[in-house]
Write a structure and sequence with these properties.
Length: 155
């Protein structure tokens, strides 16, 4: 699930519009849990915590298996990471940044892994960005479900 460095550079180049953009340093921003009030969830998302979710950031997630469910977070930033879980019952979702699609991602993995950085260390020109995840009615053939979750965002 973790993208390689070339994928990160490619997204940085797309966001900035500069060919050959590079990922710089490891400067970090603030981490906002899935329960932060800046997250906006459409219908279909449920907050979950404790038990099997205890490995999530602050022990909480927002989870859905409803196709078309949307979760958005707006912040002023020059870099971001989105954290999700991967598991054997996970489906696919689409990422949008300021309304522009940045691809479809598969959250399936044979074992459950929490706090997976979707875009570890992306750096973009400072500004206001809205990051949106939209769930799809698609899954890996090996997946047993269509679940997608939000753990946190760093921006």
């Amino acid at each position: 699930m973790n993208s390689n460095i070339l994928g990160r550079v490619k997204l940085a180049a797309i966001v900035t519009g500069i060919a050959g953009a590079t990922v710089a340093g490891e400067a970090r921003a603030d981490v906002y849990d899935d329960t932060h009030p800046n997250w906006i969830y459409s219908t279909g998302w449920s907050p979950v915590s404790g038990g099997v979710y205890s490995g999530a950031y602050n022990g909480t997630l927002h989870l859905t298996q409803t196709p078309g469910s949307v979760a958005s977070f707006t912040c002023n930033t020059a870099g971001f990471d989105i954290y999700i879980s991967t598991a054997s019952n996970r489906g696919k979702f689409q990422l949008f940044i300021n309304g522009q699609s940045y691809g479809i991602y598969d959250a399936y993995s044979p074992t459950t892994v929490r706090q997976v950085p979707l875009f570890y260390g992306y750096f973009i020109p400072y500004g206001t960005y809205t990051f949106t995840i939209k769930t799809l009615n698609e899954k890996n053939p090996a997946s047993t479900g269509y679940f997608v979750d939000i753990d946190a965002i760093e921006c």
